[in-house]
Each structure stands twice: as C-alpha cells, then as structure tokens.
Amino acid sequence: MVADNSLITSLPSKQTYRSWQQTGSETFRKWELFKHPDSLKMNTGLKQWKEAASLILAAGRTLGGNSLSSRTPLDGSGASSRFDYDVLLLKRSAKSTFMPNAYVFPGGTLNSSDFSSDWLDVFKYFLNSPAFGLRSVEQPVETRPPIFATNRLKLGSPIPGEVALRICALRETFEESGVLLVVPKKEEKRLIKSPHDTFCSPHYTEHKLCSDELPKWRALVNKSPSNFIRMCQELEVLPNIWALHEWANWLTPVGKYGSRRFDTAFFMCCLQEIPSTLQDDKEIVHFQWSTPSEILQSYQARQLWIAPPQFYELSRMCHFPLLNDLHSFAHQRATEGCDQWLPVIVLQDQQYISLLPGDKLYPRDSSKQAEGDHTRDSQLEEQPDDSDLHRIVISDPYTTTLQITVKPKYNHLLPVMEPALSHNLKGQL
Questions:
Q1: 8 Å CB contact between 235 and 209
Q2: Where are the chain's structural domains?
Q3: Which residue stretches of 374-429 are H helix?
Q4: For the stretch 381-400, what's the b/e string if a residue is b when 16 or more beta carbons lie within 10 angstroms of its beta carbon?
Q5: Side-chain half-sphere of 259: how many Cα atoms within 13 Å?
Q6: Residue 357 DSSP SS3
Q7: 46-336 to CATH, choices 3.90.79.10, 3.30.1330.10, 3.40.190.10, 2.40.50.140
Q8: pTM of full prediction above 0.85
Q9: Which residue ranges does UniProt annotate as crossing the membrane (predicted)?
C-alpha cells in the first residue's frame, strides 16, 4: 500500500500531530503511512500471504471481574472437567471477509506501527539486551520460518521481528477482547534480570486502570494501531512480550478460505486467572472461555466451528490438563523453534485431506502449491501403507480426523485424541 501524501505538504506541529492521533483521522493514517510505509517493515517476499500473529491465551479457573458468565461450558452441561484452565475463543462476525462465524484465537495482521521506532522509547531500558530481553532460539536461522527469520533491520525497522510479532499479538488481543497484557515500567529492573520466572498476571491491568480508562484506549487503538504506542507511553507500561512463547507457524492453504491468506505466528500465554473480557461487537460478536476438551466436544456437536489449525493446537493442549504443566512446557520448548506449515489440500472420496510437512505425499517443493498446483487424487491411492502420515482428514465441516505417525520436530507434541471426546476423533500416534 502506498500512502497518498497529497495532503501532507509540511511536517505537522506536535499539537497538530496529537490532534490527528487522538481523533484517528484519515489525515493521521496517511501521515503514518507516509512516515512508516509497510514496504519498509514487512516481508515483501511474501506475495500470497499477509503476515499475522495470534495468541493462544490460557487462564486459570479463578474468575475475575466480568468473566463469570462466560465460564459456562459450551455444551451447557455444567459438567466438571479435569482441566484447571480455560482457553479464550472469539467468534468472528458473519460479515467478516475471512472465515465468517468461526471461533478463533485472538490475533490479526501486522501493522507498520508494530515496527515503529517509537517503540525504542518504550523499551529503552532493554535496548542493550538482544531482542529486548527475549530468549534466543536454538533453531538454525536457515531452517527458521521466514516470518521469524527475516532480518527486519534490512527492511528498515529497528524493531526485531520477534518483538514486533508479539506486539501485534498483544495489540490485537486488546482490540478484539479488551484483555490488556502489560507490566508497569517500574518493574523494568526485575524484568531485565528474570523476565520468564512467573506467570503473566493481569493484576496490573485489573486494579491500576480505572474502569473508564481501558474502553477509551481500546477505542483509540481500534481507530489507529499506533495509539497502542501512545497508550503505553502515557500509562507508563510495557507490552508483556516476555510472557508470549513461540508455539507454531501456520499458513493459509490455497483456495480454502477465499483470496485472503495469512502467514501467522502463534504464541502461547498462560495467565493465573481469567481477566475481564469484552468483545468489540464489530469483528468479534462473542467471546468464550472454555477448556480444550469442551471446545473440541462442542465443535463435534456442531455448536461452533473452528478451523483446522485451532483443532490441531487445541488437541495438542489436551496433553496438559494442568495450567502449570502447560506453562512449563510452553516456556521450555519455545527456545527450540518451530516448523512452517503450509497445508496442501487434496480431494478424495468427497473428503478434503490436508497434507502437512512430514507426510509421505507432502510435496518437496511446496511453492508450487502456493501458486495453486494441487496434488492429484491418484497419488493418495498409490501408497496404501500407513508410514509417514501427517494429515488432517475433513469429512464435513464438523467431522475432522487426524492421521499422524510422524515424530514432531523441535521437541513439540503430537495432538492427543481422547476416546471420551468422540468416536470421530482418532489420533494415530
């Protein structure tokens, strides 16, 4: 996108700039594009996809503020669960151009403001630490997914990609659900010494900001993402990037959800308790805190629809009924890295089969699939053995089966399928 700077004839005064920023005016958006063009920050090598970030938010069952009514299990049974935590799902509007009515994790596309040099002032205490104090990943850069490996400095951004992706996930979570994950700047010294030794806690957000403060800032951030920077500056808080652990990288397959396609970095974050949550009634029309097993059961009961990445990742989380165990695993595993997964969709016997990397039929050169060259159905019939399977079989929108025999990379876990969920869920582990 190229900014139309026909209205920008000179540098605005500080007062004028603030006025534009506060009102979220069109002139302000044009100025931001003029000052921070996307092409300088984003990975322009991605022709088919827009870069995005998503947050898998798990929270302990101790309920806070306005979230009490949202804890009711999705099936309405009220049955007890072996899980001691819930996961946040947001229902997209029926008017959404991408996956309308789907239940998704919070998230959205990267914005040029996520790479803005103004963040250097917010994180100035961390500028001498690599990646603002984030732990380094052991995975060799040549095998890293491009969304993580791209050198953003060469694209004109002083903000490391792994920082900007986390800022994006936190900003979008605030915009869509009202959940603001920040830490006060007065805790900078503690964070620089041990940023990963505790759960992320919403206590600062819950108790330090008055009830009128969050809606005001949320409205401003929804008008212009750059207001997220201004909010952090004025409230003297830091986006809690250290609480987000690298989890996965999924790409939208060809032709499955229309022309819009995303290269999405998924992060895991564990909260000690469920924070106050509120949908924006624009992109998001409903929110729900439920356990991974409840969500999968409700999906199979056709009470809600989730996309294959959500199905896969929630099934992975079924390994961990306890929040402490999930947090420990996510924290320890995150430094290993992750694979880039571009599903390749084939049609056989009126079933969609989504091939994932490692499957014996997954193409060596997936770039052809990126351009729309699908694997032929006949290839699935040539090798009847069950070796090297990594695929999602979709019989209908609400009947999904995982067929997996491969070993996961980077110390990750395969999805777990419990017989109690449904006879439709079968995991070949």
A1: yes
A2: 1-35, 46-336
A3: 378-382
A4: eeeeeeeebbbbbbeeebeb
A5: 1
A6: coil
A7: 3.90.79.10
A8: no
A9: none
